[in-house]
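Lab notebook, bench 4. The sequencing result for the construct came back, and we need a structural model before the next group meeting so we can plan mutations. Quick request posted to the team channel:

Model the 3D structure of this chain.
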Amino acid sequence: MKRKYGALGFVAGLYQVLGVLTLVAGAVLFLLALITRLTTNGGFRFNIIEYLTVTSLPTITLIVSGIVLYAFGQLINLLRDVELNTRISAARAAQSARAQRQSAQYLKQTVFVLRQAADRPVQQPVYVTTAPAAPAPPAPPPVIINNPPPASTAATMIAPRPLPPGEDDFTF
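Done. Here's the predicted structure in token form:
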């Protein structure tokens, strides 16, 4: 999504740049005052209380002011990020709500169809029966060959033995 409040972003950047410049200026002034104090009055023999109150206090104030300005610029950016994340979350929540509505509508239609199907009378299955098959015709009696084979064949044919009435070929 596109960020809103572009002018506020510019102000935040300006505060951060001013904070860094103030911080650097304070650090440089602090070091210059320290070097100046060390080079005068014979080196390390100077009054620390006088140094901290007269010379260092303004430079420490500059350093703290630089940190506060930079932090304020960051705070403005934080508020812009919160606003952006809130809009993104709202858009995603709306998208999720639409998906839930569609899912609920689909579920409602499915339940409606299932209830309609349950209200219809169930048809009993129809079983088709066929008439019993006609009995198979009786098997023809075996043929007994009494004629001798022609003289040209050397094989002898053996006629099947006739079965007594009531027996079949598959009984042992």
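Residues 48-119 form the longest helix (72 residues).
Will bring this to the meeting.
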